[in-house]
Amino acid sequence: MNEDFYFGVKGRVICIDPASGIEKWQTHLKGSSITNLVVHDILVIAHTKGELFGLRKDTGGILWKNPLTGLGYGSLIFATGSQSTVNILDHKAKQEAAAANSGSAGAT
Prior knowledge:
108 residues, mainly beta, Lipocalin, 4-stranded antiparallel beta sheet, 3-stranded antiparallel beta sheet, 13% helix, 39% strand
């Protein structure tokens, strides 16, 4: 079975047909920041600009959204009971770790 590919970029979620590379749908969510995704059952769950969205896998239609009130714009870790690994998509944390490592390289 050919499973579609889902990409999160600049506040958008894009569904691509893997056989043809043709875009099936695109949904603009919010802003233009990093968009983290997890695919679960009939949903693509996306996080961008501090808000969580539930999208239909087949059309990209927004089924629900959750503003994650009081949690700000921090990192988000996705996990489902059926996953064997946790998806960690945190560009800022990677940058901070790289900066910390390069700053301590000359320390004795």
